[in-house]
Amino acid sequence: MSTAAPAGPGTAPAVPLTPRWWFRPVPLARVAVFRVIAYLFIPVDVFLTTAWVRAHADVPTEFYQPLVVGRLLHLPTPTHTVVLVVQWALVVAAVLAATGRAPRVLGWAVFLLYAEWMVIAMSYGKVDHDRIAYLVALAVLPTIGRAPWRDRRSSEAAGFGMAAVLVTVMLTYFLAAWAKMRFGGWDWATGATLTRAVVRRGTDLSLWTLDVAWLLPAAQWAMLVFEFAAPLMLLVRSDRARVGLVVFLLGFHVMVYAGVGIIFLPHCIAILSILPWERLRRSSPPTGAVGAVGAVGAVGAVAVPGRDGDPPG
């Protein structure tokens, strides 16, 4: 996949999921910023968001029931030593990868170590569904290669990587709606799904909704419509539309967190790949030296997702 200039203004728009859409060139500067965000999130995830995974080091090994990928690849049983080695190797590799050096070697190391970290996390019962888009992001970043912050070129490899993350973000929502219908049927939308969630995990910002009889059932229908309509996000093309989409998606997750204390933080990190980060340098000259871009904002209030039940979304 070669580096190429973006399509000219007279070029017809690419149809979603066609080969031309998958490989539509994306500025390498966008990848450079997102790479830093994705890799620096890992220490946050390891020590805060999924700090409970470390506790598996002290769990008797007979409780380990590996996921299918763990069985197929004959991954090691997570003993105390294995868990600690994976934890610290992952954090060190992620911090080094965030520098942009050796993007393929360090990138693949981060992906493999984080995948193993997730196998250790999810092989004792419940499997969370907020990780797949982030895992795909970690998998595609090494395929792009070098992406300097000052590089104003566009790349088909970067286009494929960002398209893969976008499609996975979309599928996370669409398949969530499909799962609701498969396992809960229309009772999910017409029943007391969100009412139960608010009763169990409600906050001061959401408890009042229990007194409005129609509100939570209406919210259930709205959630289903939103999730089934998720493929429409593949039609987003302009930078303004991309920003609007990200604001909408993150706003949805912030609302869920404010209401029931659950946030899909790795998924939210994957959503950030949609943003046109290269516009941070728009005022810079097209060639030659350019000024440094400010550091990407840190992740705010990090919440540890509940382990006692699936979130309503």
Notes on the protein architecture:
- The chain crosses the membrane at residues 32-55, 75-98, 105-125, 131-149, 161-179, 214-236, 243-275.
- This is MFS transporter permease.
- This protein has 313 residues and is mainly alpha-helical.
- The chain has one domain.
- Helix content is 53%, strand content 1%.
- The chain is built from twelve helices and two strands.
- It has a two-stranded antiparallel ribbon.
- The radius of gyration is 21 Å and the shape is globular.
Q: Could you name the key traits of this structure?
A:
globular, disordered C terminus, about 0% strand, 12 helices, mainly alpha
Main sheet record: 2 strands, antiparallel
The coarse overall form would be globular
Order of SSEs: HEHHHHHEHHHHHH
How many H/I helices?
A: 12
How many domains? 1
Range of helix content: 40-55%
> Which runs of at least 5 residues are low in confidence (pLDDT < 50)?
1-10, 283-313
Spatial strand order of the main sheet: 1-2
DSSP strand count = 2
* Mean pLDDT level: 86
Structural class, by secondary structure, is mainly alpha
Quaternary organisation of the protein chains:
single chain
N-to-C terminal Cα separation, in Å? 37 Å
Keywords: Membrane, Transmembrane, Transmembrane helix
Protein name: MFS transporter permease
Transmembrane segments: 32-55, 75-98, 105-125, 131-149, 161-179, 214-236, 243-275
